[in-house]
Amino acid sequence: MTYDLLSALAGFAIVTLFTPGPNNLMLMASGVSFGYRRTLPHLLGVALGFPVMMLAVGVGLAQVFTWVPVLHLVLKVASVLFMLWLAWKIATEHAPEGAGKTAGPSGGQPLRFLQAAAFQWVNPKAWAMAMTATSAYLPAPGLAGVMAVAAVFCGLGLLSSHTWVLAGRAVAALLRDPRHLRVFNLLMALLLVVTLWPLVMH
């Protein structure tokens, strides 16, 4: 991989991984609700699950949508419905009595590793990132090139996921007041819904 291509790929990865999206908003909300240690499986599911998805897309899964276009519509509808459900769960969470923190976006428990990894497959931002990266930034054709791109996203994804969880922990002290926590949950839910706008309009 040339230096110029690596720089371009790293720039694309940084912009897409660190900007707000479904994964990052959920990680931040989980950081607020459950803390770093309990959110760690969720964090690793995102950071490792996305490169696995990218490998699948890069080795030919995206071609399936060309052969069977209706599958793209099915995925889009499933993505919208699932993310609206997640937004509702976040918005309606409340602090348990005496706990001073939310029950979290997954019904009282943080997402587990496999749940977070599986979420990548219905995350519209993840699909856009994977298809763009594997079509525009491959250093070489074939599996080796896809693995190189996935490795870059894996390393930077771990850093990004930690950043958003720690950001949630940083503001957790400000959200001990149930009213502040309610506003935070509503804002996270609203931002999660906003991330669906490009998918719905496309």
Strands, helices and their partners?
Layout: H1 3-18, H2 22-67, H3 70-92, H4 113-119, H5 124-136, H6 143-172, H7 178-194, H8 197-201
How would you describe this structure to a colleague?
The protein is an all-alpha fold and 202 residues long. 78% of the residues lie in helices and 0% in strands. α1 (3-18) runs parallel beside α6 (143-172) and α2 (22-67) crosses α4 (113-119).
What tags apply to this protein structure?
mainly alpha, single chain, 202 residues
In short:
With 202 residues, this protein is an all-alpha fold. 78% of the residues lie in helices and 0% in strands.
Q: How many individual β-strands?
A: 0
Number of helices: 8
Radius of gyration (Å):
17 Å
Mean pLDDT: 82
- Summarize the helix and strand pattern as letters: HHHHHHHH
User: Percent helix among the residues?
Assistant: over 70%
Number of structural units classed as domains: 1
- Indicate the low-confidence ranges by residue numbers: 95-107
What does the overall shape look like? Answer: globular
Overall structural class, as computed from helix and strand content, comes to: mainly alpha
The CA-CA distance between the termini, in Å, is 33 Å
**Largest sheet report:** none
Strand content: under 5%
